[in-house]
């Protein structure tokens, strides 16, 4: 029931908001209440799955693989919890006086529909239903990109539509090949049936899925849609996109990892796609002066760390990928909210025309310092432990060239964060009279994110232990299939 509640509640509330169209203050309160309820349910799901237990819910009374099923293990419960937390923070950050009353009114139901699609994607045990959830997420994201209603937002949506349309076609083609070989698209069922499939066909089908998921995660070279689209969004929505939406592609790669392990060449491709994304993404970020565009290229770079760790495999690699997902899903939204405040105070998006005297040196500078230096990987912040876990996985796998790429990318990440600090926060000589600092505003959402970043750094040990347990369960290759395929329901009995 917990999984059904998590999936159905945001859909139900979104429909109510569309049909009722309440006053904006009530719309915001309803969204915040919904977020709180979802967070409570997500914490319950985390508790239910923390000791290796797998929850399964079947639809229509048919057992998998003949029917549709939701399944929650430690991996999926973690991603669901992240999404609910970010939804609450983004709802808190979306304010009509800053982002426009009409934009906020339009964003509330769409953010809830996006949440439903993401939660459905994290919970489904069926690849075709994962495809359906991908499309639901993409439709919601297309509409959210149009919320500002500017020429730039319309132009920014075009590459998102085109590249994701191609990726969806590859996803569907790969599913067709898998179904032709195994007669099933259930992840648990495929883990057993693909062992006897023709190697060439199996490799082709899985390669299509890797390209599709890698595109949706914005890996190099198919990443140009992200820097074109994210800067057009209202900053809180960009924070939601950067925090979790691209992680659906990462989650899909993690979920099919036992299938990818049947062909080590695909994991090798992921390792180098991740390493090159980490390096080229941060190099592109260094050349930018628009804050949000710079941060968008950084998302490409940081996802590269995650995918490289995933490709390394093993318990250490998957645990490092999971810990890095947690770290990045908190740090990047924080930086987008800081960029929103910088742009508002300076009335510009260009770092070169920002004035540190308008920015101030108080809470905003502290929030930026915590998030930026965590992204760069400085101790004792969460980014240090995230990068250390990835470096350790690369060292243990003797991938020394990859390790070198990631270390160099980390140095450039620090340089790009110092670039923002230099233009926006560091005192500089100025001949003209000092302008009055822009008034601050309610930054509770940013404060919550900074507190979570610090908490993740202080609790890195227990969190990494959870990530390691989730990684071991994901790699097991037997517990998840057994739990899903042995679920009660109608249909032929499972053959042993």
Descriptive notes:
The chain has 496 residues and is mainly α. The chain has one domain (2-427, 439-485). The chain is built from 23 helices and 2 strands. Strands 1-2 form a two-stranded antiparallel ribbon. Helix 2 (24-49) packs parallel to helix 5. The two termini are 29 Å apart. The mean pLDDT is 86.
Secondary structure elements and pairings:
Elements: H1 2-20, H2 24-49, E1 55-58, E2 69-72, H3 74-93, H4 96-99, H5 101-123, H6 127-145, H7 151-182, H8 187-193, H9 199-216, H10 225-229, H11 235-245, H12 247-255, H13 257-260, H14 264-286, H15 291-312, H16 314-346, H17 356-359, H18 363-376, H19 382-396, H20 400-424, H21 444-458, H22 460-476, H23 479-485
Helix pairs in contact: 1-2, 1-5, 2-3, 2-5, 3-5, 3-11, 3-16, 3-21, 5-6, 6-7, 7-9, 8-23, 9-12, 11-16, 12-15, 14-15, 14-20, 15-16, 15-19, 15-20, 16-18, 16-19, 16-21, 16-22, 18-20, 18-21, 19-21
